[in-house]
Amino acid sequence: MALTDDTTSTSSGSAANVAGAITALSSASSTIKNAWENSGAKDVIATASSNLPQGTQDTISLAKEKVFNRKNLRSPTVFFGIGEEQPFYVEKVPSLIAERARHNLSFFYLNYVGVTTILFFLTLLISPSSIIGIGLLGGAWLAVIRATNEGSVQIKGITVTQKQASIAMGGLSVLVLIWLLSHIFWMTLFTSGFLCGVHLLLRDASMHKDEEDKVVMQGDLSLEVGGDGIGDEEEASFLNNAAEVSLS
Question: What is the rounded CA–CA span in Å between residue 26 and residue 97?
Answer without folding.
Answer: 46
